[in-house]
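Appendix B. Chain record.
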Amino acid sequence: MRWTLILFLVAVVFAIPDASPCSAHAKPSADISRGPDVLDDPDISDTGSDASDTRSAISDISAADISDIAAAGGASDVGVAVLDLDSGETVAEQGDKPFYSASLSKLILAVDALSRPLSAEDQDLVHRALSASDDNAMDVLWTRFDGMDAIGRVAAEAGLTGTHAPDDPSQWGEVVITADDMVRLYHYILGSPVRDAVVAALSAAPATAADGFDQAFGLLGVTGVYAKQGWMYYLPSDVYLHSAGVLDNRYAVAVLTTNPTGDWTTARQSINAVTQAVLAKLGVKG
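Structure tokens predicted for this chain:
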């Protein structure tokens, strides 16, 4: 990804030792809340399959519960959504709030790339981008597979109503997403021909990413979960940490956070608190 305001960034990285070296950008003036030009906003509950005979745990999560879950993030701005993949039932808090994607855009681009015949090299690039969240692999894929238009193609195909390409074509971390769209995307993936490749790559995600960042936060590492992680330091002081995945092949979960403190430890504690609150409501120990 492009380096901007590099002198300031160097100072930030030295002040925050565990910051990802390719995660800082100058804050743009763009309004990330704009949605796609077309696409109706379907009820997410209509995207599920026939209701399961097994009662959904999210049936017991009230509006107050999901609000409390989001509040566990403290100072962080939080978007959270949980989708029952069997029944289509969903609960969300700020599920339609726009966030910069950080590395979650890798999942969107992978869906588009995997929908066509790929060379062994390209398959490896996709695997590395999804598992170790390899930025170098994503840089190649973004250029090779028309990243700007790929985001729109996947949004249209999967019914993602709040997702759109970045204003700056060089900044794939600035793809705009929502928590609602991330659980919709998993629902789409699991019913598509790209399922096996995506699940295999996400299931192979190591605790340490390709850039040395500790990506074992949120959902990653929880038993029965595969997930895609995202992190980004955004000047002057916003820390983005996202975790979106599938639990027990039953629930798609997305937790998106932006912490204004500029502190990675605080941001990590925040997303972990929200995730643990979600898992507790689903009857899972993190």
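Further analysis of this model is presented in Appendix C.
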